[in-house]
Amino acid sequence: MMNDMIKNNRDKGAGEAIPSAPKKEGGQGRRLYTFLVYSENIAGILNQITAVFTRRQMNIESLNVSASSVKDVHKYTITTWSDDEDDIIKINKQIEKKIDVIKSDYYTDDELFIHEVGLFKISTEVLLQVPEVSRSIRKHNARMMEVNPTYSTVLLAGLTEDITDLFHQLKNFGCLLQYTRSGHIAVTRSFDEPISAYLNEQAKVEYGE
Questions:
Q1: Is 5 left (phi over 0), alpha (psi -120 to 50) or beta?
Q2: Which of 116, 123, 127 is nearest to 163 (CA)?
Q3: In this predicted model, what pLDDT tens digit does every residue of 20-48 receive, in sequence order?
Q4: What is the average pLDDT score of the chain?
Q5: Concatenated DSSP letters of 92-139
Q6: Can you tell me the distance from the alpha carbon of 48 to that of 98, in angstroms, rounded to the nearest whole number?
Q7: How far apart are CA 79 and CA 53, in angstroms?
Q8: How far is CA 85 from the centre of its chain?
């Protein structure tokens, strides 16, 4: 089947140089925190939010921006490592002070449903010569997106640990050409968006209910 896919893509482009892979952060005593920040879609708000982390000398591990379930409200999902929750609390308060921010909260992984997407470009030559490569891809339930004579692309959607595990295995096989991760996309374990209850309370205050 692999050979058939290669024949059907004979004229596609050549492979690319191997980039350095992202380094996994975090150590003993450190914890990954996820911020969910809600705001209207206003130019410059992202700079305002990330500046809070910069001033605190906190590195952003991942950042994802998307629409939320509330009309005209955007959701920023930001992760960072810290060994001091007090720093996280201070960052959250500073973000909420921004005029254009509607609400901000922070969470640990056990308080969220989390997903990530990993995209891998690997050497087709090694893929065909080393059976363990395809076995590892199948074991992780990853999908082959494209196969041509030079490179193949693999997509894996799942937990961070699964994606990084496949990354290390493919790197050890010597077939990894490129790699990227989407970063956290997350929803809380509450019934609806955390901002929904907040907006309802604000509406009651506004109308004197």
A1: alpha
A2: 116
A3: 334 444 445 789 999 999 998 888 899 99
A4: 84
A5: HHHHHTSTTEEEEEEE-GGGEEEEEEEEEEEEHHHHHH-HHHHHHHHH
A6: 8
A7: 11
A8: 22
DSSP 75-97: EEEEEEEES-HHHHHHHHHHHHT
Q: With bands split at pLDDT 50, 70 and 90, how would you rate the model's confidence at 69? A: confident
Closest CA to 140 of 123, 121, 161: 161
- Cα dihedral value 38, 43, 46, 51, nearest 10: -120
Residues 6+ away with beta carbon under 8 Å from 117: 155, 156, 157, 163, 181, 182
Q: Are 117 and 179 in contact (CB under 8 A)?
A: no
Question: Alpha-carbon distance 205 to 173, whole Å?
Answer: 61
d(CA 201, CA 209): 9
Cα separations (Å) of 44 from 40, 49, 101?
11, 9, 11
Whether the pLDDT of residue 132 is over 60: the answer is yes
Q: What angle do CA 98, 102, 105 make, to 5 degrees?
A: 90
pLDDT score recorded for residue 25: 45
